[in-house]
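One such given next:

>
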Amino acid sequence: MKRILFTLLFFLTISVSAQEFDKGKEYFDSLSEDDKELMTSLVEDIIFNLIDSVMEEGMYMKALDLLDSVNANWQKTFGVEVPYQMYLKKGQVYMHLEEWQRLVDVTTECINKKNGTLPNQVVPIMYNMQGMGYSNLEKYKDAIRSYENALSYYSKNEDLGSQGDVLCNIGHCYNKSRKLLSASSFYNKGLLKFLEYFKITKKQLLQRELKVYDSYEKTLLNSFAAHLFEMAVYEQNYGDKSTSKEYLLMSAHCGLNLAKSEYQRIYGHY
């Protein structure tokens, strides 16, 4: 089994002759349906672990080359369309490379091709990534539509942290569109969802730093801190100066070093 697995992985990731490919394909086709399913699953795990390792090393173009090679050979090897994880990984690479139009394209392709077959927890991730692409392209109406689609799924899943993130992203789009009342409304909605998720009140966050230890929660905390900093800037420019000071301190208490240095620069202490 191990020999078969690595042979198939070889066919997926590097160029081989037509004769060698046909022999490998013939061998795969001779397996039972259960063995084919197991083989496909094992190859998926190996490929995604490999790509994750390459991305962790910062070699995003190498990861993209691997994904392109796998996408080109997957269907003719296994006789099924590429799994949604391929689109997800590609989207993550484009985010790191700041290739925003390509991010929009790959998430749109995934949503359209995999409509009805994507796991419920993956659909909002795709819409959120799509929204990020549109937002960075300054197509804010399109971004808001994508974020709203993501929000509807996160609401069904009762994912408070992700709801907070998306609501603040919508606030950002309205801010950039100079629709200030809508921006303020969505920023505040996002703030409340984040506070509910982290089980902390605004008063408590103003008094102490918020510590988390789970990697997923750390990612959400970083997003919360960044949104709070943006909200502080928003209030400084268009709203209430005392509220801006509070948001800046809250951002610092969520661990954003820029917020800490800015608070100290403006107010002389932290």
Summary: The two ends are 60 Å apart (CA to CA). The longest helix spans residues 33-56.
